[in-house]
Structures are given as C-alpha cells and as structure tokens.
Amino acid sequence: FVLAFLGWIGIIISTAMPQWKMASYAGDNIVTAQALYEGLWMSCAMQSTGQIQCKVYDSLLKLESSLQATRALMVAAILLGLVGVFVSVTGMKCMKCMEDDQVKKMRMAVFGGVIFIISGLAALVATSWYGNRVARAFYDPFTPVNTRFEFGSALFIGWAASSLAILGGSFLCCSCPRRETSYPPSRGYPKNASSTGKDYV
C-alpha cells in the first residue's frame, strides 16, 4: 500500500510540474541565458538569475489533441488513485472497518490493488505517449534546430511513479483470500476381521 500511495503522489507531482519537455541545446544551438520548459498546463522560461516566468495556456481548444488526451489520462490516473487509496485503506488489517468478515476485507484490498494498477497503467501510457512525441519531433529532420525539445524531469518522475503504483497494486492483489480446498474424508483401513476358521475368497 505504501508503494502504491507513493506512486499516486508521484503521479500528482508529475502532472503539476511544467517540465514535461525542455528546450534542447544540442547541435548548433547557442546556449542562451534562459531555459524553456513546457508542461501539460503551462509553458515556463527560467532566466539565468533563477527567476521563472510561466504562462498558462490560453485556450483548451487550441491545444493539440494528443496533449488533451495526455491531460485526460493523467487526471484519470489521479482520480483512480484516489479511489484506490480509500478502497485499499478499507481492506487494511489495521483498520476496524469490516473486521467481522476477513474475506470481504481481503477482497477490498485486492480491488484497491486492481484500481492502483489501472491508475499506474493510465499514467504510464500518458507519459510514454508524450515522450514518444518529443523523441519523434527531436529526430525529425524538418523540425527547426532551435525548436527541438528533450525529455523533462516530469516525464522521469511520471515513469517512476507509474511503476510504483503498478508494483504496489500488484502486491495488494497478492492478499487475495485463499480458497479452502475441501478434501474427501480419508478412509480408514479396514480392521482385520477376526479369524473364524473360514476362508473367504
């Protein structure tokens, strides 16, 4: 549960960070006195003095469809993670809720783990899709050199967070209640009949 919870916190941090991609200074680019970042919600410029200026995207409809889909996946991952937290806490052994029925309590923990796995997969798809777009634009020969971007720190945090969420959810799924196998009653060996002087065939 701790792993999945940390992964969910990481997904929130990754979604809020503006460093999803950063301006590349590779090749013939001249290193300027500012660093350019772009995220899901805003674009930022950091001066050499450490001052950061950010601008929120003006219109949602003017954004690329892939960016809107990435936003939707990350928000869905956060909401699913929130549901997974509440469901998993209900299934924890240290909680008093549903302590009368241990089987249902374990099933709640398993259900919470499944929700965490789905949340982690949604975040993993979003970050990988965004990273693929950044890499394709970087290696595209038609992309101007001064407009190329590289992976930002938010992508790496998102990858690590989604992996933690999936791993923690998998561990929660391991608390599935075991089915009690009913074995047939063992047959006792027949007692040796007392010899009565007659042989039976």
TrEMBL record:
InterPro entries: Claudin, Claudin1, Claudin_CS, PMP22/EMP/MP20/Claudin. The chain crosses the membrane at residues 69-89, 109-131, 151-174. GO terms for molecular function: structural molecule activity. Keywords: Cell junction, Cell membrane, Membrane, Signal, Tight junction, Transmembrane, Transmembrane helix. It comes from the Eukaryota. Residues 181-201 are annotated as: Disordered. One of its GO terms (cellular component) is plasma membrane. It is a multi-pass membrane protein. The keyword Transmembrane applies. The keyword Repressor does not apply. Its main location: other. It is found in: Cell junction, Tight junction; Cell membrane. Residues 1-18 form the signal peptide. Claudins function as major constituents of the tight junction complexes that regulate the permeability of epithelia. Belongs to the claudin family. This is Claudin.
